[in-house]
């Protein structure tokens, strides 16, 4: 098909794609514990039906030892054609009223060219992008297409185990991960780096038992104050990570402006941004450290005593190209050596998930960038992602020779994924459907 007839075909398909998106957004497929299973199962069943109708005749819910099933199916392409795996997820984040939604999160609403509702972007927008891509070829794509739609991406995922147990289902030339987005609507990007995530729990102890704060205070050290000083030593005055041996760099691709970042982050009045360098440097090329939990005496349970011990959970985002074990070692060494007043410190290592660097410059990457340029009318730039997707490493290990492209309709400017008033731009979905269809054609033409 010529590019212009493909683009006309996609344009004709869009009313159906958007109707499907609205239908899917209305299903509250929250896979978190404590939420009803029925809508998640209904969403899985509907995903199977829609994929079958789009040409994936053998689309089915796969057997997994626990949790909601991934949906998988395959359309064989012409003999000798390359194989592409299309990824999306059908579960969504919760949407509590306390987030402050302007319209009901599970009643899709169309305003100003955008569809609002939980999952409209993340990642039901990605799922309907795949449906549109298959429909663009009337269910007979020019390559072999394997589709995997995960059901537990937003919670404890069971897909990594599934991939490890069934790696043959994921043999391919290219993984197309449609769960990302452009910095701004209409300006294409590919995501080439994702930070990893390490965490630990640090316990600081100063006393054998609680002491009366009037009798002993002023001379006997307080464990919570010691912990606070230890935590504050992890960053410098500007907010940059100040841990020796932890790696950071700078970002070469596109960046958000501070204004764009602030529009999404909504800091309170008077609160300033942390760190130095561009926003892209801070989010994608430098590490960050946050204290994400604290165990100590509650205010309700407090009395005039000096606390003997306190503990905090620390999460550190690490940059591509680093060893998670080595970065965590550096963090632990800092914690063990920076407590004030000789306080005793013990550290429990909790997690070390690697960062991911998308290899660029291969034929699939080149084809993906050319497809984006054609669909959007401008050259794509590169962005990173501050979040980690451990699945990517698992997919890479399942099929080490396969390339990746990470993209999608979840623009970072307005989509507000995981927050209130999540939305997606309908025209962005159309451009992504066209980009994916052009990618399949370009890959097929290479043979
Ligand atoms: Zn997602």
Structure, described:
This protein is α+β, with helices and mostly antiparallel strands and 447 residues long. The chain is 33% helix and 21% strand. A hairpin with a 2-residue loop joins strand 4 and strand 5. The mean pLDDT is 96. Bound molecules: zinc ion. Zinc ion is lined by residues 89, 122-123, 153, 179.
Q: Could you write a compact summary of the structure shown?
A:
This protein is an alpha+beta fold. The chain is 33% helix and 21% strand. It folds into 2 domains: 3-194 and 355-446, Zn peptidases (Aminopeptidase); 196-264 and 275-353, Alpha-Beta Plaits (2-Layer Sandwich), CATH 3.30.70.360.
Structural class: alpha+beta
Instruction: Please tell me the total number of domains.
Output: 2
How are helices and strands ordered from N to C? HHEEEEEHEHEEEEHHHHEEEHEEHEHEEH
**Strand content bin:** 15-25%
Helix content: 25-40%
- The N- to C-terminal Cα distance equals 16 Å
Q: Please tell me the CATH architecture of the largest domain by its name.
A: 3-Layer(aba) Sandwich
Looking at the structure, the CATH topology of the largest domain is: Aminopeptidase
Report the radius of gyration as a whole number of Å.
Answer: 24 Å
* Low-pLDDT ranges: none
| Major β-sheet profile | 6 strands, mixed
Give average pLDDT, whole number: 96
Give the CA-based shape.
Answer: elongated
Strand tally: 18
Bound molecules: zinc ion
Q: What CATH first level of the largest domain would be assigned?
A: Alpha Beta
What is the spatial order of strands in the main beta sheet? 1-2-6-3-7-17
């Amino acid at each position: 098909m010529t590019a212009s007839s493909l683009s006309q075909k996609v344009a004709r398909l869009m009313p159906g794609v958007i109707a499907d998106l609205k239908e899917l957004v209305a299903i509250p497929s929250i896979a978190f514990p404590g939420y009803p299973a029925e809508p998640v199962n209904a969403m899985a069943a509907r995903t199977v039906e829609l994929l079958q109708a789009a040409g994936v005749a053998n689309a089915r819910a796969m057997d997994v030892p626990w949790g909601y099933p991934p949906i998988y199916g395959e359309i064989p392409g012409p003999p000798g054609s390359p194989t592409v795996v299309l990824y999306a997820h059908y579960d969504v984040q919760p949407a509590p009223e306390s987030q402050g939604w302007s319209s009901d999160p599970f009643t899709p609403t169309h305003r100003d060219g955008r569809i609002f509702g939980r999952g409209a972007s993340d990642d039901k927008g990605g799922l309907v992008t795949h449906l549109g891509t298959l429909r663009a070829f009337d269910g007979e794509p020019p390559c072999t297409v394997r589709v995997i739609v995960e059901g537990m991406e937003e919670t404890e995922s069971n897909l990594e185990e599934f991939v490890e147990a069934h790696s043959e289902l994921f043999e391919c030339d290219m993984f197309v991960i449609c769960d990302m987005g452009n910095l701004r609507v209409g300006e294409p990007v590919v995501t080439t780096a994702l930070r990893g995530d390490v965490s630990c729990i640090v316990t600081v102890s100063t006393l054998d038992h609680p002491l009366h704060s009037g009798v002993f205070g002023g001379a006997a050290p307080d464990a919570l104050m010691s912990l606070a000083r230890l935590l504050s030593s992890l960053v410098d005055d500007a907010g940059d990570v100040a841990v020796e041996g932890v790696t950071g760099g700078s970002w070469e691709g596109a960046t958000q402006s501070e204004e764009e970042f602030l529009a999404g982050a909504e800091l309170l009045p008077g609160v300033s941004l942390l760190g130095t360098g561009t926003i892209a440097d801070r989010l994608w090329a430098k590490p960050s450290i946050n204290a994400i939990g604290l165990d100590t005496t509650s205010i309700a349970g407090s009395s005039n005593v000096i606390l003997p011990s306190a503990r905090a959970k620390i999460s550190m985002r690490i940059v591509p190209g680093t060893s998670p074990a080595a970065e965590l070692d550096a963090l632990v060494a800092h914690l063990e050596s920076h407590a004030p007043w000789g306080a005793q410190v013990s550290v429990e290592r909790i997690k070390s998930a690697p960062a991911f660097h998308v290899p660029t410059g291969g034929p699939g990457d080149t084809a993906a960038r050319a497809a984006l340029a054609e669909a959007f009318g401008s050259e794509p730039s590169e962005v990173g992602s501050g979040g980690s997707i451990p699945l990517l490493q698992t997919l890479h290990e399942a099929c080490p020779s396969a390339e990746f492209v990470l993209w999608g309709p979840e623009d970072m400017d307005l989509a507000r994924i995981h927050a209130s008033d999540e939305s997606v731009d309908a025209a962005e979905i159309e451009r992504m459907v066209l980009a994916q269809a052009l990618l399949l054609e370009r890959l097929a033409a290479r043979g």
